[in-house]
Fold:
Amino acid sequence: MHSPQANGPGRRLGLDDYLDDFDRHFWRSGSEGFWKLERQQSFREPGVESWEAFYQGHWDEALALIERQRGHYEEYFRRIAGCGFALHRVRCVEEPISSYLQWELHLLHLKAQCGEDTRVLTGAGIRRYEAQRTLSEIVVLGSSVMYEVLYDDEGKLAGGIRFSDPHDISRCRQAIQEMHRSGEPLDDFFSRHVARLPPPTVAKEQI
Structure:
């Protein structure tokens, strides 16, 4: 069992440089695919309409805005499949589920219905990989590039650290794949733990 943490040196990228670099490599992920590990339980996503509605306490509107994106994601995942790769995600979930994560799991559930391969890791499944430190947010694109995604103190995307050592990339991808195999399919987890939750009480200072 290995934790998906880079060992070698990386190059820190500011937000704009990270987004540009990510976009250049994303569509060339190839047969190795896209693998993402999400660990934090709360983020801020200003500018995302459904998140903004959730943040303002308008839960029904937030869910409606997520559903309104179905056509976009269907087309998005068709394009990804046409480029010869797939998206795989491990979403770590602590209970009780945070308000933010309740919102995000609805979005991830829609993405899963459209083609994303997401599994959920909880409790002991998370702790197996955190003997030394809390897991980072890691994205692996094919075999050529990997990022540790960085966020500011408010939970907003701030950039990333880029790693390009092939051995590091392969090792981290394999670790995320191992976590993915041990996780629960998102649809099963969502049905049992999320679908029937009451609307979240949004305490903005806790999101």
